[in-house]
Write a structure and sequence with these properties.
Blueprint (H helix, E strand, L loop, with lengths): L11 H20 L2 E2 L8 E3 L5 E3 L6 E2 L20 H4 L9 H16 L7 H9 L4 H4 L9 H11 L12
Antiparallel strand pairs: 1-4, 2-3
Length: 167
């Protein structure tokens, strides 16, 4: 899976290629009207040519059906779960729920940080935002890390409506 990249010395272009390959299949799902609900690095398979494939569609649901399903069916990995999904706020669960998880996944790929699955840091991430010490671990690439920080912060905005679309 994609975590295999964690021990490889990667460059700026390679990271952008990985990010692009992470976004494309999620965007495709969203265009079809689906929410994946389980975006995380381990749900990307790395092929021999370093191409990524998104997998594990067990939690995927049609966005238009969210309001009609039981809150028990709304779940995701606690390390990557968005605030609205954790609180099962069906009024704010949209495709942007995946964007939050994707932002945390990108942060993890860039920094090798093991994201918390509960506790005070977990709560801090979902209420205040990504801690500065996490963002400071993003590789510099001669000052080009600011764009990665802005991307991650926008994708992990605690208000779903303020997250960017994948387009």
């Amino acid at each position: 899976n994609i975590k295999n990249f964690r021990n490889i010395k990667l460059n700026y272009s390679f990271y952008w290629d990985i990010i692009f390959q992470m976004i494309v299949p999620v965007n495709f799902l969203h265009k079809l009207g689906y929410i994946h609900f389980d975006i995380k690095p381990t749900n990307y398979l790395v092929m021999n040519n370093n191409q990524l494939l998104l997998n594990d569609f067990c939690l995927t649901k049609k966005e238009e059906n969210i309001k009609n399903i039981s809150t028990d069916e709304l779940e995701g990995d606690s390390n990557y779960i968005s605030p609205e999904l954790f609180y099962k706020d069906k009024d704010t669960i949209t495709k942007k729920t995946d964007i939050y998880s994707l932002g945390l996944s990108i942060l993890q790929i860039l920094t090798n940080i093991d994201l918390p699955n509960n506790g005070s840091t977990w709560q801090l991430i979902r209420t205040v935002g990504i801690p500065k010490e996490f963002l400071d671990k993003i590789p510099s690439f001669e000052g080009e890390n600011e764009i990665f920080k802005k991307l991650i912060l926008s994708m992990t905005n605690n208000k779903a409506k303020d997250r960017p679309d994948l387009e």
